[in-house]
Amino acid sequence: MSFLVVAGFIAAAREIGAVEAALAFAGGFIVVALLLVGISSITARARERRAARRRKSEARALAGAAAFAMLPTLLASRKAGLALVVPAVAALAWAVMRENMPPTDGADNSPD
Question: Where are the bilayer-spanning segments (predicted)?
Answer without folding.
Answer: 28-46, 81-97
